[in-house]
């Protein structure tokens, strides 16, 4: 009996982890959609969602439907970020504050410039300019995903691409030091191509659930 209870508990934890992962990847979802993805009943999913809500990891908003009652659309809260790689946030924040104290804001900016330059060189070694834009984007996304950004590429109907990062492993450090994010768009251009138009349309630090960079090639180019 004890073994059965232990197995049931592990099964429930695995299901809740799967729910959290799906919400991280896809954004807000209703219980029925989650149930279909997990091949369990909607009732079971709701029980797990309410447990996650009690833990402060998810919340819901109501979405009107053409028929029947509004659907509850479940999404992760900022508290759920702790369940994903954080890039050693506490240590990084401590180091940032120490660098500010030791070298001042100008010294910290110089260090960030060095970090940015080294990061660009590392990415450029993995993203060959001989590749097509789509191939460069996929190679870049693979590199960012390996760092914990959970990146993917979406082709848009107008010929542009959306470079989507569903997680920011340096989020807490970036809150303490805005310079970590300030040059991201310029870094993307240097890695992917200076002739590209790149804008950030969603930003985790601004309260969005993901970072999205819209990348538009020059007219007549892939």
From TrEMBL:
It comes from the Bacteria. Residues 15-59 form the HTH arsR-type domain. Transmembrane segments: none annotated. InterPro entries: ArsR-like_HTH, Carb_Metab_HTH_regulators, HTH_ArsR_DNA-bd_dom, WH-like_DNA-bd_sf, WH_DNA-bd_sf. One of its GO terms (molecular function) is DNA-binding transcription factor activity. CDD domains: HTH_ARSR (cd00090). This is Transcriptional regulator.
């Amino acid at each position: 009996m004890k073994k059965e209870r232990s197995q049931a508990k592990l099964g429930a934890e695995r299901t809740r982890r799967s729910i959290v992962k799906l919400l991280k990847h896809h954004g807000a979802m209703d219980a029925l959609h989650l149930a279909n993805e997990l091949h369990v009943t909607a009732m079971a999913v709701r029980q797990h969602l309410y447990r996650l809500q009690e833990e402060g990891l998810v919340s819901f908003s109501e979405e009107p439907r053409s028929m029947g009652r509004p659907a509850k659309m479940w999404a992760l809260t900022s508290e759920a970020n702790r369940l994903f790689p954080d890039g050693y946030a506490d240590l990084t924040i401590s180091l940032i504050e120490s660098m500010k104290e030791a070298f001042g804001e100008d010294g910290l900016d110089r260090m960030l410039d060095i970090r940015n330059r080294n990061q660009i060189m590392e990415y450029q070694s993995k993203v060959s300019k001989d590749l097509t834009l789509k191939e460069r984007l996929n190679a870049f996304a693979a590199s960012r995903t390996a760092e914990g950004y959970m990146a993917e590429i979406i082709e848009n109907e107008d010929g542009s691409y959306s470079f989507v990062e569903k997680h920011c492993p340096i989020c807490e450090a970036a809150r303490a030091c805005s310079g970590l994010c300030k040059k991201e768009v310029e870094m993307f251009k240097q890695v992917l191509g200076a002739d590209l138009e790149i804008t950030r349309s969603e930003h985790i630090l601004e309260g969005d659930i993901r970072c999205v960079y819209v990348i538009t090639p020059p007219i007549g180019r892939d």
